[in-house]
Design brief:
The complex is a heterodimer. Chain A is globular. Chain A has a domain at 2-210. Chain A is mainly α. The longest helix of chain A has 27 residues, at 176-202. Chain A has helices spanning 2-27, 35-51, 57-79, 84-104, 106-109, 128-152, 154-164, 166-171, 176-202, 213-225, 232-251, 256-259, 262-280. Chain B is 35% helix and 25% strand. The longest helix of chain B is centred in the C-terminal third of the chain and has 16 residues, at 180-195. At the A-B interface, helix 6, helix 7, helix 8 and helix 9 of A face helix 2, helix 3 and helix 4 of B.
Chain lengths: 303, 248
């Protein structure tokens, strides 16, 4: 049961990351290939503050995610007005830098020996891992709700315009650079929050958790589900992480000698799925959804 | 509203495309800018709206409330001053409907911040009305859908600029790709706004009959410099213009 709660909590974190990537890439068109970096700043920032400096868990999460947002803003200042490839390379590089820093700054992070233990909040409550999962669920649902509101809002419309034709949007008086910077920074802060909330899930932090595989998993989930659809992140994560990591790895009656092959089989399936989707349905399983706005029918609508 | 360029030059690899001692736009109502292909008309338009950085020279805008130097401004800041340019090439926002595209252009930037995420309504009645008036004035195939043909996209581009209520509108070849009757109704709408004193307009065109019909003043640009300026009749009968452009 504890294992299932852990898996579900982790899946919720993945959904949250994919949802934020949907805002960054699906709406604003910023290809962030350093998801694990911003998540990692939240994860290790929370860990260091909690273990080394004795900050309580929730303030630690908030400080760490603010740090993640600030680093996101600085990176945005440097690269966001450059080409898509430059953004891909820079964000990927940032996540590599974070992972390297965690290994090299042994005094703070414990290096390869790891950092622990980060306990769940709520003291000695019996089901505190379950309560914490509900907490993550609430945060992720709030994220989904906010990004639906964003899609329907004036700001979301501006983001879509920037994604489609940034130069044209600027020629109509939109400060496209600043809008993109703020959206990027805030969503990177959100990734930091999810990272911070992952710290008590893992309890013990080691640098290999910062491998780019999380970035790839989140990207695959989003592209499968539909990068332009508000629920694409949820569906995509269920199809990938939910199906393979939870359902098959936990419940499929695989003989022990073959079980070690499962992770490779999983990667194989991801690859095939991705190729099929990109070839036959490049907009993802759910496609794209436009703004759901009830425009006032005529004059005199209520305000 | 007077847009003035002085000693303006633009060179690509020592090849000078634009070299203008002094030119003033927006003083006369509806102005035309004509010239042979490669004269530097589009480059000049790009320079004036700060989409292209000049090699040297100054651009300033007299808004009536003081003179503003445009050189240090970014493209979006120039637009906010009220200087807007329609595009020669077809451009658009592929995922926005005709109405959304116009609503976007009509919405002031200060209303598009983070707080708009939690606003009850997306667009005010005022904006909806403006959009409806423009959309219904033209024969779009699907008024609630997307711009279909190249012509519709070109028309939408011009309407998008008009709905921002510019003080000075630069139109880069508005007839290219548009059917004749649509061009006329656009130009009539533009002329009405100019006569009402809402804005000044500069039209870059190869369609000379249109220039003669609508413009109050015409600038002739050739090989990067303004060679002649005057009323349409003066330009028509000018020898330099005839030799360099009309091939007489």
């Amino acid at each position: 049961m504890d294992y299932l709660i852990f898996s579900f909590s982790l899946m919720l974190v993945y959904i949250g990351l994919a949802q934020l990537l949907h805002i960054q890439f699906g709406l604003a068109g910023i290809p962030n290939f350093g998801v694990v970096g911003f998540w990692g700043i939240g994860l290790y920032g929370t860990g260091v503050l909690y273990v080394v400096f004795g900050v309580a868990l929730l303030p630690a999460i908030l400080i760490a995610s603010a740090l993640s947002a600030i680093i996101g803003y600085l990176l945005a200042l440097l690269v966001l007005q450059r080409s898509g490839q430059a953004i891909l390379a820079a964000t990927l590089a940032l996540s590599a830098i974070i992972a390297t820093l965690v290994v090299s700054e042994k005094d703070l992070t414990g290096g390869v020996q790891g950092l622990g233990t980060i306990k769940f909040p709520f003291g000695d409550m019996a089901n505190r891992n379950f309560v914490f999962m509900i907490f993550i669920l609430v945060v992720v649902l709030a994220l989904v709700w906010v990004s639906a509101r964003l899609r329907d809002s004036r700001m979301g419309r501006q983001l879509v315009a920037i994604r489609d034709n940034e130069e044209l949007a600027a020629s109509l008086g939109k400060n496209t650079a600043a809008t993109k910077r703020w959206v990027f920074a805030i969503t990177c802060g959100g990734m930091g929050i999810l990272g911070g909330m992952s710290a008590p899930l893992h309890q013990f932090l080691v640098p290999y958790q910062l491998a780019p595989s999380i970035t790839f998993a989140v990207w695959i989930a989003l592209v499968l589900g539909g990068k332009g659809h508000n629920l694409g992140a949820i569906v995509g994560t269920f199809v990938t992480f939910g199906l393979f990591d939870i359902l098959i790895e936990t419940y499929a009656p695989v003989p022990a000698e073959q079980a070690i092959l499962l992770p490779n089989f999983k990667l194989f399936c991801y690859g095939v799925l991705l190729v099929v989707i990109i070839m036959f349905r490049p907009i993802g399983l759910l496609g794209t959804d436009g703004p759901k706005v009830r425009q006032p029918a005529a004059k005199g609508a209520e305000t | 509203m007077r847009l003035e360029a002085q000693n303006l030059t633009k060179a690509y690899h020592a090849h000078e495309v634009v070299n203008i001692e002094k030119v003033t736009f927006g003083a006369k109502g509806l102005e035309g800018l004509i010239g042979p292909n490669g004269a530097g008309k589009s480059t000049l338009m790009g320079l004036l709206t700060r989409r292209i950085a000049p090699t040297s020279g100054t651009i300033s805008l007299d808004t009536g409330a003081g003179v503003k130097q445009l050189n240090p401004l970014k493209s979006y800041e120039v637009a906010r001053v009220g200087l807007i340019k329609t595009n020669q090439r077809i451009q658009g926002f592929d995922s926005l409907t005709i109405r959304d595209s116009l609503r976007l252009a009509a919405t002031p930037p200060k209303d598009e911040g983070l707080t708009s995420i939690f606003a009850g309504h997306r667009d005010t009645d005022e904006i909806e009305e403006k959009v409806a008036r423009l959309v219904e004035a033209f024969p779009f195939t699907d008024r609630n859908g997307y711009a279909m043909s190249g012509g519709e996209k070109k028309l939408l581009d011009i309407l998008r600029c008009l709905i921002t209520e510019p003080k000075l509108l630069l139109m880069d070849e508005p007839t290219a790709g548009l059917p004749d009757d649509i061009t006329r109704s656009v130009m009539n709408m533009v002329r009405e706004k100019v006569l009402a004193g809402d804005m000044r307009v500069v039209v870059v065109e190869h369609d000379l009959p249109l220039i003669w019909e609508y413009c109050d003043y015409v600038h002739f640009l050739s090989e990067g410099s303004i060679l002649f300026e005057g009323e349409p009749d003066e330009v028509k009968s000018n020898r330099v213009v005839a030799e360099k452009y009309m091939g007489v």
